[in-house]
Amino acid sequence: MEEKRRISCIVCPVSCVGEVTVVEGKATGVSGFTCPRGQAYAMEEVTAPKRTLTSTVRIDGGELPLLPVVSQHPLPKDRIIECARCLATVRVAAPIQEGEVICADILGLKVNIVASRNMEAVH
Amino acid sequence: MYEHKAEVVIIGGGPAGLAAAVSACDNGADGVLVLERDREAGGILQQCIHNGFGLHHFKQELTGPGYAGRYLQQVKERPNINVMLNTMVLSVAEDKTIMAVNPQYGVMRIAAKAVIFTMGCRERTRGAIRIPGTRPAGVFTAGAAQRMVNMEGYLPGKKLVILGSGDIGLIMARRMMLEGAEVQAALEIMPYCNGLTRNVVQCLEDYGIPLYLSHTIVAIHGKDRVSGVTCARVDEKMQPIAGTEFDLECDCLLLSVGLIPENELSRELGLTMDPLTAGPVVDQLRQTSLPGFFAAGNVVHVHDLVDFVSEEGEIAGKYAARYAAGVLPTDGPVALVKATDGIRTAVPQVIRLNADDTATLRLYMRASKPERQVTLVISSGDQTLLERKLPVAKPGEMIVAEIPADKRGAIKDSITVVLKH
């Protein structure tokens, strides 16, 4: 079965809107994008879309009750919510340094979740 | 009363203020004091935990706290910079005496040789857009909600509607979904989105949140807590069209309806203001209408990217240090920059013709409305200084263009900026 998926390109401010033809889960054609980078982005959006995840985890003894975290690499888009649910159960203790691994290999996706700032301990 | 002295005093320790402090220090200022209202420096970046910062300035993608962290580190490495936290500035006088208050010293008087305004901007509120209806709890600006969710550990609601398509509103839509809340819709009164396409795709489309363009909220319902909103389509004059109303249930309404530069101190001081940017008029050195007073970042005009805020802070810091050292000429011929057809705002508004010729003549502009296939023309008298084809121009994204060094000589007493079809 052939399906056409409409994709808004985010590579540059021109923001082309084009179509990717999908046959049985595989991208077979692309139209409407004005550059090769846009075509590549659209193909990936259809076959294996990825997103960087940013969220927070609870932190004990810190200046703030929450520590912001970021995925070191983009994660599969369809696992993002699941990863966010997983981080909701994580609790760490201050002090924490920016870049410290907060959750290694999240959900077995081979991506680490790291702290995105320093958090001093308060005495 | 506690008395304090510094060569350069910077009001506001956000991205503009930190960049200005580092730059003032590196350009020889002996004693730089940053006055910050919050409990830590870094400004709004500390609550913007999402990524996408720093691609221009650091050539890599950082989170907001990551971007702030880099500047905080640079400040820490410079003993000449003193950051005073929990400090509120009360007034700034023309003789560069600053009155401020904090829990440590009480009310204090600070004597400066040069002052840099980097107070940033504030969100427009429900009052600013006059939505009718009851006044229940649960109506927040998107930035206030962002601080609650990302720094303080509170969830402002479980079922949300977002009014306005500014980037903070879009980012908060995704953030609330990740925290387990439900986002019903985002509404935008203009026929186009004000946020970046990337945010529309990754914050709304990814989560199946509808964006209603040319729509607004005509009533807020609920007694103690918001229970819902009535939405309606608007006509070309942005007036609601009768018969198009529909209701959305929600326990929280977030407003992302624009930012206004925070200029109470600048107005009290009597700086010349630009009514369109709502910030002080500045020259290419980011000096305001009063010699020795500089301004940079969102206090001058609301930026799209923090990278440009840092750049502006660096310029202000450098020339404030020179002014403090007594080596910056403060008079001489100027050219006024006039934004005309298609361009709503342009900064700097003044070009000082006898100023340091290594200072970049980079103009930051915003289009009046979305356009495709236009030409940006910057001219002075009958001389064209710069012409550039733009495949797209959007009010949400700044247009940045630099007048080439070899055209400086052609600048007369005014510069005109226009978008041509």
Please work out how many helical segments of chain B DSSP would assign: 8
Distance between the termini of chain A: 64 Å
Q: Compute the number of structural domains of chain A.
A: 2
If helices are DSSP runs of H or I spanning 4 or more residues, what is the number of helices of chain A? Answer: 2
Fraction of residues in H or I helices of chain A: 10-25%
CATH architecture of the largest domain in chain B: 3-Layer(bba) Sandwich
Shape of chain A: elongated
Q: What descriptors fit this protein?
A:
heterodimer; A: 123 residues; alpha+beta; CPE0013-like fold; five-stranded mixed β-sheet; three-stranded antiparallel β-sheet; B: 421 residues; alpha/beta; FAD/NAD(P)-binding domain; Immunoglobulin-like; seven-stranded mixed β-sheet; five-stranded parallel β-sheet; 20% helix; globular
Structure explained in plain terms:
The complex is a heterodimer of chains A (123) and B (421). With 123 residues, chain A is of the alpha+beta class. Helices cover 16% and strands 37% of the residues of chain A. In chain A, the strands form three sheets. Chain A has a five-stranded mixed beta sheet, with no helix packed on it. In chain A, strands 1-2-3 form a three-stranded antiparallel beta sheet, with helices on one face. In chain A, strands 4-7 form a two-stranded antiparallel ribbon. In chain A, a hairpin with a 5-residue loop joins strand 5 and strand 6. Chain A is elongated, with a radius of gyration of 19 Å. Chain B starts with a strand and ends with a strand. Chain B has 421 residues and is α/β, with parallel strands linked by helices. At the A-B interface, strand 5, strand 6 and helix 2 of A face helix 2, helix 4 and helix 6 of B.
Q: Can you summarize this structure?
A:
Chain A is α+β, with helices and mostly antiparallel strands. Chain A is 16% helix and 37% strand.
